[in-house]
Amino acid sequence: MSAAEAVLEGRRMAESLMIDACRITRRTGELVTNPETGEVTNSAVTVYEGKCKVQSKDSATANPEAGGAVFTVVSRQVHIPANAAQVRDDDVVEITASALNSFTVGKQYRVEGFTPDTFDTAFRLPVKENL
Predict the structure, then answer these.
(1) DSSP secondary structure, 69-128, as one string
(2) Contacts of 68 (CB under 8 A, 6+ apart)
(3) Which letter, b or e, does each residue of 15-49 get, where b requires 16 or more Cβ atoms within 10 Å of its Cβ?
């Protein structure tokens, strides 16, 4: 089996685990005003919409201190099929459906530090939760 064949088989296997769904959007830089409420928001375009998987990057956590408060940081990733979209840092990932964990639906994450590699079986997007 060639390296390319192994990667393609790995992609099929990785995608079989993507049982959640998400939407990835990117700000356009244009401001939009809601005529009914007067609220001004940034407009965005959809970069990707489809299957995904959410998971912790590793089991290690950090407990930094800021302003006298200690908080817990867990590294997260959202996986989408390899080559499914040109994802960039600061894109927003929203979980739109989950087969097993409904509490994740509606969660939003910001992509931070994504770089694709040659032998990716999935795009593993490093994300931070938008609170």
Answers:
(1) EE--EEEEEEEEETTS----TT-EEEEEE-SS-GGGTT-EEEE-S----TT-SEEEEEEE
(2) none
(3) beebebbbbbbbeeeeeeeeeeeeeeeeebeebbb
Give phi and psi for 38, each to the nearest 5.
Answer: 80, 0
User: pLDDT digits over 8-57, tens only?
Assistant: 999 999 999 999 999 999 998 888 888 899 888 888 999 999 999 999 87
| Burial of 102 (C-beta count, 10 Å sphere; 0-12/13-18/19+) | exposed
Report the DSSP pairing between strands 108-111 and 73-81: unpaired
Specify the pTM: 0.81
**Distance of alpha carbon 2 from alpha carbon 108, whole angstroms:** 38
